[in-house]
Amino acid sequence: MVAVDRFADADCEVAVFGRTLQNLVDEEFRNEQKVIAATVRELLKAYLRSKHPAATADQLAEKHRLKLEGHLFDEEWLDIVRFMYGRKDSAAIMNRVRAIQRDTIDAAIAREIELAPIDNNTPGTRRRTTAGPSPLASSPHWLLMVQRCTAHTCASSSLARSRPHVNYPMFGHSSAAT
Questions:
Q1: What is the extent of the structural domain holding 76?
Q2: In this predicted structure, what is the pLDDT of residue 126?
Q3: What are the angstrom distances between the C-alpha of 111 and each of 8, 99, 120, 139?
Q4: Positions of the chain with pLDDT under 50
Q5: Could you give the number of structural domains in the chain?
Q6: What Å distances lie between residue 145 and 97, 104, 139, CA to CA?
Q7: 70 in a domain, yes or no?
Q8: Which residues of 2-40 are buried (b: 16+ CB within 10 A; e: fewer)?
Q9: Fewest C-beta in 10 Å: which of 136, 157, 162, 172?
Q10: pTM for the full model?
């Protein structure tokens, strides 16, 4: 269990495995987690098609790949989470993702301060700011963050007891994720 505790925050599959061992989630939740991930990917594709109707299939595939790698704007992942879950569950997931983002930014800032030149840390030295990569550029994969937050909140919310209802208005039907 030490390994599960150590890696649960970094990998949503490890978190689900640990919760399954503790009987906090059903053993079949892993299958639901795969369906959720696939649904998020499909919703992202549909979102990109709606935002870029003139884009070719190759351009959309490249945009989709970049978004899955983490180059996703807040409005994009927030729309997907709001679309998939009810108000209470989406609020819990969004709060967890925001907390992870804050922790990631704080860790990146702490690393930058640690690596700052000595002359920039001496008393009386005027602080210089430098332009560099955004701390969010080193943030964990956004899909994994959403999955991790889903896995974390499922034990205490209705996510553990019910499947999310997924609407596909762009496809002309709605269904419950199975």
A1: 7-122+130-161
A2: 63
A3: 22, 18, 15, 13
A4: 132-140, 155-178
A5: 1
A6: 6, 11, 9
A7: yes
A8: eebeeebeebbbbbbbbbbeeeebeeebeebbeebbebb
A9: 172
A10: 0.56
Q: Which of 160, 159, 168, 158 is nearest to 38 (CA)?
A: 168
Predicted pLDDT of residue 64: 93
Element (H or E) spanning 66, and its range? Answer: helix 57-68
The pLDDT tens digits for 61-98 are: 999 999 988 888 888 889 899 988 888 899 999 998 89
Could you give the CA distance from residue 95 to residue 130 in angstroms, rounded to a whole number?
A: 30
pLDDT at 142: 54
Could you tell me if residue 102 is inside a domain? yes
* pLDDT on residue 149: 58
pLDDT of residue 43: 92
Q: Half-sphere exposure of 16 toward its Cβ, with a 13 Å CA cutoff?
A: 21
| Pairwise CA distance, residues 104 & 135, whole Å | 7
Q: What distance in Å separates the CA atoms of residue 98 and residue 132, rounded to the nearest whole number?
A: 22
Is there a domain that residue 170 lies in? no
Domain presence at residue 173: no
